[in-house]
């Protein structure tokens, strides 16, 4: 296949423009923007080399000259979205506040691009914007007296919390859209069944928990508490 490397390589180490020959018709940023637009509208499953090439107005084989593999396309997409963090010029000096702000910003970005939760791994973390984000995250942690290995763990755990919560939110919303009845009705039926089971006396701890708080779960509060507890753990080391 045209442009496909014989050995593994990182897309960022591959020159975007050859030293010789005609000027490329498309940039990586343009290709990534088209792929992101497709994923936002129709999901990751809709992203294919053929469709991206079609929207760019070029042949599929021509696209491989810019992006040798579909995995490379995913990396371009992930890094383009990482630019949306719009990092400040410098940290405030309050590492907890800075990391909390980064986490909330990451959650907003992943909600805006629901498919991103599927690309949140070290595999797609080598792009320029992703590296800038990691460097800034570590800069935020300068006041924290821990080895860099532990700081990297903290950043990874915060990102993991964000990814997990957003993935759950997305799955819940997608399931609700596919139900043949209103999601409120299903929730009502399920809660009635659960209440019946709890009132049987076989589950005293669950009964006590529901007596204490039977209202809807405050997912925003749960997210903030989970994040805060992780930060607490590293602050106390």
From TrEMBL:
PROSITE patterns: HTH_TETR_2
Pfam families xref list: TetR_C_1 (PF02909)
Location of the DNA-binding region in this protein: 48-67
HTH tetR-type domain: residues covered: 25-85
Keyword Transcription regulation assigned: yes
Record keywords: DNA-binding, Transcription, Transcription regulation
Keyword Transcription regulation carried by entry: yes
Region Disordered, residue ranges: 1-26
Name of this chain's protein: TetR family transcriptional regulator
Lineage: Bacteria, Bacillati, Actinomycetota, Actinomycetes, Kitasatosporales
């Amino acid at each position: 296949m045209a442009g496909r490397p014989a050995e593994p390589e990182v897309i960022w180490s591959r020159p975007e423009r050859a030293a010789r020959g005609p000027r490329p018709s498309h940039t990586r940023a343009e290709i990534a923007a088209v792929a992101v637009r497709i994923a936002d509208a129709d999901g990751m499953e809709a992203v294919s080399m053929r469709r991206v090439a079609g929207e760019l107005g070029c042949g599929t084989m021509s696209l491989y000259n810019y992006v040798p593999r579909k995995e490379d396309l995913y990396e371009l997409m992930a890094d383009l979205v990482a630019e949306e963090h719009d990092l400040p010029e410098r940290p405030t000096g309050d590492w907890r506040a800075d990391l909390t702000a980064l986490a909330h910003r990451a959650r907003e970005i992943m909600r805006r691009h629901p498919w991103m939760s599927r690309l949140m791994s070290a595999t797609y973390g080598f792009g320029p914007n992703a590296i800038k984000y990691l460097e800034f995250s570590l800069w935020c942690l300068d006041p924290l007296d821990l080895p860099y290995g532990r700081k990297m763990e903290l950043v990874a755990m915060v990102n993991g919390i964000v990814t997990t919560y957003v993935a759950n939110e997305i799955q819940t919303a997608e399931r609700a859209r596919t139900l043949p009845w209103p999601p409120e009705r299903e929730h009502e039926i399920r809660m009635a069944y659960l209440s019946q089971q709890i009132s049987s006396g076989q589950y005293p701890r669950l009964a006590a928990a529901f007596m204490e708080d039977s209202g809807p779960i405050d997912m925003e509060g749960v997210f903030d508490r989970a994040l805060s507890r992780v930060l607490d753990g590293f602050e106390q080391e």
